[in-house]
Design goal:
The termini are far apart. Helix content is 17%, strand content 32%. By secondary structure, the protein is α+β, with helices and mostly antiparallel strands. The longest helix is centred in the C-terminal third of the chain and has 38 residues.
Length: 443
């Protein structure tokens, strides 16, 4: 056995108070006075009130109420009977009804000072409370609000009402209370009217659930053209900076567009998008196209009015075959220019490489093949070749001493230097040394 599955919800407590034509109801949880409880969290209970006029033609009326609530719209000077049950909707459990309690209503005093006909006008998260003043003079108003969760508690919330900062001691019959609104809570508002120092009156309460009460305004629309495309640029309701509208409502857009022609009526076409940019293809040239857009939210089942109609005139078009031919010729010209540029660059590079590394000119015959290394290019420096020192010795032997005559040595050496091909000034020292060594040998 699982106790919480088998256990039944007992009857809650019920207290009634009749005042000024209304009945105040206070409900206590089923196990309020028990030390041990089956249902630990009393805030999970939802209370269903059943009431009827104690007469022969009574009709039962149901209302979901908070633990502390008021019942109005009752006939004055009449007896009404009430019973209440506590339910747990998440668990599918319904409790027993409380014993029936009856109370007689009083006559409602019509106070001309009170604000009447309270209504909330909300658009794009701008909230305004409006009321009537019954044409009384010298009346000031204070708008008060109560956080909705306080009504779910079992405590009295009569001293928990707060004043709206911008709506205190005003003489107008309306005020903007957007400053207190957040999307994570719900509120109750009322108006306290004062005339003089002693006379005041509280209006009826009005509930405000921000995302449900708020209305969606029409989006902004701007049109643009490119080639054969019509671009539709959409501004979300409330402007691009309004993150509350964009993030909480999961907006989509319904676009109506048509060709506006004087000679015939074109069919209106429709498309739905999530983005703020839409494209219509294949628009006709020299034509007037008109567009209007509606914003809507599927999760909240809300939609805006359509935006103002926006129109744009498409320019005169170019015949399609000529347009295609022009694109082809332009592409062909670009390809030819690129190919010619590449051929020219490669040709110039080839000539430079060939000229440097494979020259067409040959060295003169008188130096071709001299030594072991050839000249390969006029731009490359040739290594200096070793130069041999040469001399011609004319010897002459005489009968007196078989001495050799070296008179022509200097002349022969000078002649060798004049040739310019093999002589070198640095070899002079070597030549002198050879001469001295030869003379010593001859002696």
């Amino acid at each position: 056995m699982v106790p919480e599955y088998v256990a039944q919800i007992g009857p809650p407590g019920l207290e009634l108070q009749s005042t000024d034509g209304i009945v105040k109801v206070k409900v206590s949880p089923p196990e309020a006075n028990q030390r041990k409880k089956m249902w630990i969290n009393d805030l999970n209970f939802k209370y269903n009130l059943v009431f009827w006029e104690n007469s022969s033609h009574a009709q039962l009326r149901n209302k979901n109420i908070f633990p502390v609530d008021t019942i109005d719209d009752l006939a004055p000077n009449s007896t009404y009977c009430f019973k209440v049950q506590a339910n747990l909707p998440m668990e599918g459990k319904q409790g027993w009804f409380s014993p029936i309690s009856c109370v007689k209503t009083t006559q409602k005093v019509e106070d001309l000072v009170c604000a009447t006909n309270l209504s909330v006008l909300a658009l794009n998260m701008n909230f305004h409370l409006l009321w009537d003043n019954q044409e009384q003079q010298d009346v000031t108003y204070n708008v008060q609000y109560l956080l909705g969760y306080l009504k779910k508690l079992n405590d009295d919330y009569s001293d928990k009402w707060l004043g709206v900062p911008s709506c205190e001691n005003i003489t107008d019959t309306g005020c903007n209370f957007s400053s207190i609104i957040t999307t994570t809570a719900f509120y109750y508002l009322r108006v306290q009217a004062r005339q003089g120092h002693n006379k005041s009156c509280l209006s009826r309460e009005v509930k405000v659930d921000p995302l449900k009460t708020n209305g969606i305004g029409p989006p902004g629309v701007r049109l643009d053209l490119s080639d054969t495309l019509l671009h539709i640029l959409i501004s979300p309701p409330g402007g691009a900076e309004d993150e509350v509208m964009r993030d909480n409502y999961d907006l989509s857009y319904r676009i109506l567009y048509w060709k506006n022609s004087s000679d015939k009526e074109e069919e209106v076409q429709q498309k739905e998008v999530k983005q703020t940019i839409a494209t219509v293809s294949d628009v006709s040239p020299s034509s007037l196209y008109c567009v209007k857009v509606q914003a809507f939210s599927k999760p909240y089942n809300k939609s805006s009015a359509y935006s103002q109609q926006q129109c744009i005139h498409t320019p005169a078009g170019t015949p399609l075959p000529l347009f295609i031919f022009g694109i082809f010729m332009g592409a062909l010209l670009v390809v030819l220019l690129v190919a010619a540029s590449l051929v020219f660059v490669f040709y110039q590079a080839y000539n430079k490489i060939k000229y440097v590394f494979f020259p067409s000119c040959q060295p003169p015959l008188n130096i071709e093949g001299f030594g072991a290394q050839l000249f390969s290019s006029p731009y490359l420096a040739a290594a200096e070749e070793p130069v041999e020192s040469c001399c011609v010795i004319d010897s002459m032997v005489t009968e007196e001493g078989n001495q050799t005559d070296f008179t022509d040595y200097k002349h022969s050496k000078q002649s060798s230097r004049d040739s310019g091909n093999y002589s070198n000034d640095d070899n002079t020292a070597g030549s002198k040394g050879s001469k001295e060594a030869l003379e010593k040998e001859m002696v």
